Amino acid sequence: MLSQEELRALPKVALHDHLDGGLRPATVIEHCAENGHELPTTDPGELGRWFFEAADSGSLVRYLEGFAHTTAAMQTRDQLVRVAREFVLDQAADGIIYAEARWAPEQHLEQGLTLQAAVEAVRDGLAQGMAQAESEGRGIVATQLVTAMRHAEEPTTEIAELALAYRDDSVAGYDIAGAELGFRPTRFQASFDLLRRNNAHYTIHAGEADGPDSVWEAVQLCGAQRIGHGVRICEDIEEFWGEHPRLGRFAAFVRDQRIPLEVCPTSNLQTGVAATLGQHPVARLAELGFNVTIHCDNRLMSDTSLSAEFARLSETFGWGLNEVETATVAAMRAAFLSHPEREALIDGLIRPAFRAARREVRA
Q: Which of 106, 110, 174, 259 has the fewest CB atoms within 10 Å distance of its CB?
């Protein structure tokens, strides 16, 4: 069994981590005071517990309610810069070597920022965080994914156009997020068509609050390159927990095409995907050959880190260095980064660190 301390020392990759779901409680308190936004409590420890308990409801809709407080703390340039900088530093402290911060610029315009100014503020904060982490001996590459809210009354291509405008300036890709059930991915078909025509990267939340049909639509109609969560693909597998599982045609397609699943175990428990971690499909999907990657989703709401997520999988399913390395390499290969850069991080950092960890275990 691997401990959090052992896992923290290993290089990891964070692909599914919401910027507005990972703030430090003290930062939320300070920024909300500046903005005149009332919080449930102004004690950092109590506020952290409040976020976790509010999210721990078994409902995605209820889970999302806490974001009203975190987005209220991200409404000025200075606030966005600080949140992005702290995002990078917190990830680096957990051993993350590559991180994509996903967030919805449209939710941060209440005090006069434009979409462009908001993206540039996060860009600058990420750059400051990387520079500080490097100076402290913790190298990390951090980019941003701009997200459109899928429950918008009238979907537009505005955020997709923003992703294209800043694709060479810190924005690695695009996503849609928010309430999944009742808001299928094809509502944003025009955005996905625009991105695909321009050879851009995007991932789509699907298969968390809705079933395999949502994942099918994201993959087969919208052309998703990765799937955020995706764990309910297991519903297209007969005898999923048995000795002889039979994959449906779509589940087999997802597996065989190596479409990455961005799995967030603790978050999934909070939104009702499974009652306990032992009942979560993540380990079984990995055993069946799906391209499983592991992430936090929202570190504040789930009171977690990527090291903690892997430690829980180690304790529950017996994951060791081999399984953690497999998931980490899979995540790095799925990153919205150039192929040479991905392979350089795998060959230069990830593989050597895991080889060294195995030698230490043998010794």
A: 110
Active site residues: 208
> What pLDDT, on a 0 to 100 scale, did the predictor assign at position 180?
87
**Pick from 326, 321, 338: which is nearest to 289 by CA?**
326
338 class by beta-carbon count within 10 Å (0-12 exposed, 13-18 middle, 19+ buried)? exposed
Closest by CA position to 314, among listed 265, 252, 245? 265
Q: Longest C-alpha distance within the chain, in Å? A: 61
Tell me if 285 sits within 8 A of 261, measured CB to CB: yes
- C-beta atoms surrounding 94 within 10 Å: 20
The rounded distance, in Å, linking the Cα atoms of 156 and 19 is 22
CB 148 within 8 A of CB 160: yes
Ranges in the chain, pLDDT < 70:
60
Q: Going by C-beta distance under 8 Å and a sequence separation of 6 or more, which residues neighbour residue 74?
A: 19, 20, 23, 31, 80, 83, 107, 108
- The answer to whether residues 226 and 203 touch, using CB atoms and an 8 Å cutoff, is yes
The whole-number pLDDT of residue 152 equals 85
The full length of the chain comes to 363
Q: What is the pLDDT of residue 65?
A: 80
CA 203 to chain centre: 10
Left if phi > 0, otherwise alpha if psi is -120 to 50, otherwise beta: which for 170?
left
- Reported as a single tens digit per residue, the pLDDT across 93-151 is 999 999 999 999 999 999 999 999 999 999 999 999 999 999 999 999 999 999 999 98
Q: What is the bridge-based pairing of β-strands 237-238 and 246-247?
A: antiparallel
Pure H helices in the chain: 4-8, 25-35, 44-55, 60-63, 67-72, 77-93, 115-135, 158-165, 189-197, 212-216, 249-256, 265-270, 282-287, 299-302, 306-317, 321-334, 339-345, 351-362
